Fold this protein.
Amino acid sequence: MGITPKNNEKTFNKNQLLVTKTDLKGKITYANQAFVKIVGMRESELLGKPHNIIRHPDMPKIVFKILWDALQKGEEVHAYVKNICADGSFYWVMANVTPSVFNGKVVGYHSARRVPTREAISVIEPLYRELLSAERSGGISASQKILDKLLQEKGMAYEEFILSF
Ligand SMILES: Cc1cc2nc3c(=O)[nH]c(=O)nc-3n(C[C@H](O)[C@H](O)[C@H](O)COP(=O)(O)O)c2cc1C
C-alpha cells in the first residue's frame, strides 16, 4: 500500500521461517526478526498495522479470499504469496496460516512462511498473472472460475494442489 513496486527479488535462507501473528482483523501483533529484516521496515512500523501493508499489487484477490474463508471456518490454509518490501522489492513465500485458539475461541491468526521452490514459483507466477488479469476484467468470480477449472482438470483440491510441488 503506497509503495511503488520494483522488479527486484529478495530471498531468504531455506532454513528460515518468516513469522507473523495477527488479531482477528489481520492487524499485525507479532513479527519475528527474519520477517522484519526482509520487509525492511522497523518492527514498530509493522506492529498494529493491517497485514495488507506488505500486499503486492501482483497478488490476485482470490488467494486472500481462499485464505480468509479457510480461517473463518477455523481451518488452516497454505498459500503462495508475493509480498512487497519497504523499498519496493518483492519476495515469494509459501505460507501456512492457522487460527490461534484459546479457551475454545479463535483469538487471532498465525502465519509461518518458508522460501518456496523455484519449480513452484514457475507454475504459480504465470497462474497468478492469469488470475489477476481475469480479475481486472471480470472480478473475483472470473478468477475463481479459472482456478476451479484448473483444479478440476488436475483432479485436486486447492490445498492438495498447493502442497503438490
Ligand atoms: C496471519 C495472517 C498473515 C497474513 N500475511 C499476509 C502477507 O504476508 N501478505 C499479504 O499480502 N497478506 C497477508 N495476509 C492477508 C491480509 O490480511 C489481506 O487479506 C491481504 O493483504 C489482502 O488485502 P486487501 O484485501 O486489503 O487487498 C495475512 C493474513 C493473516 C490473517
Q: What stands out?
A: Residues 20, 22, 26, 51-52, 54-55, 59, 64, 81, 83, 97, 109-111 surround flavin mononucleotide (CB under 6 Å). Residues 118-154 form the longest helix (37 residues).
